[in-house]
Amino acid sequence: MAPTPTGPEHGPTDPAAPDPVTTSPAAPDHVATIQAEWRRERPDLDVSPQAVIGRLHRLSGRLTEELCLVYGRYGLGEGEFDVLAALRRAGAPFERAPGELAAHTMVTTGAMTKRIDRLERAGLVTRRRSEADGRGRVVALTEAGRRLFDEAFTAHMRNEHRLLSVLTPEETSALEALLTTWQHRLDHSEAPPTGHPHP
């Protein structure tokens, strides 16, 4: 019987290395199926962007679900976790103005007020008048809030490592570089948005 061919042209010989056959999808995924349908129905349009944007859109939803499972174990929603994270990152005494929190978490001040209300009722944050501006308010982590968040954040980072573990370190670095470049160019693009086409 002929020996099994080895070498770069025949794939990796290291049994621990990823097998391109087994790690590739066995059949077209959801996005590829949708693209095929659109190519049939609208052959006049180039639907190739869906290969990237459609998959990112679906992946974002999947990642959000996975992350929220961990938040939920600590009685937190995604919004509440973001507020506590912004306060914890501020360093001692772990406080920020509501407007600053809204800017850090990219939500409206109205939405931020609701989040702070829920966290205050749970005893995780307090609100007080600003010493610098008597009309302003300051939101601060309570000791219970800091302890809870530190525990939740440890679990959160463990979860993020798990989600990225399906990629090699090289793939992770390449993806990080691509996403950083894409975001930077979009943020500095002068072209007006034309909507968000999803498959």
What's the helix and strand layout?
Elements lengths: L19 H4 L6 H12 L8 H24 L4 H12 L5 E2 L1 H8 L3 H13 L3 E5 L7 E5 L1 H22 L4 H19 L12
Number of helices: 8
Instruction: Decide which structural class fits the backbone.
Output: mainly alpha
Mean pLDDT: 85
Annotated CATH topology of the domain at 78-152: Arc Repressor Mutant, subunit A
What series of H and E elements makes up the topology? HHHHEHHEEHH
End-to-end CA span: 49 Å
Pick out the low-confidence regions: 1-23
What is the level 1 CATH name of the domain at 78-152? Mainly Alpha
CATH homologous superfamily name of the domain at 78-152?
Winged helix-like DNA-binding domain superfamily/Winged helix DNA-binding domain
- Major sheet details: 3 strands, antiparallel
Strand order in the largest sheet:
1-3-2
CATH level-two architecture of the domain at 78-152: Orthogonal Bundle
Percent strand equals 5-15%
Radius of gyration: 23 Å
Q: Helix amount, in percent?
A: 55-70%
Overall shape: it is: elongated
Tally of extended strands?
3
Overview of this protein structure:
With 199 residues, the protein is mainly alpha-helical. It has a domain at 78-152: Winged helix-like DNA-binding domain superfamily/Winged helix DNA-binding domain (Arc Repressor Mutant, subunit A). Helix content is 57%, strand content 6%. The protein contains 8 helices and 3 strands. It has helices at 20-23, 30-41, 50-73, 78-89, 98-105, 109-121, 143-164, 169-187; strands spanning 95-96, 125-129, 137-141. A 3-stranded antiparallel β-sheet has the order 1-3-2. The longest helix has 24 residues, at 50-73. The model is unreliable at 1-23 (pLDDT under 50).
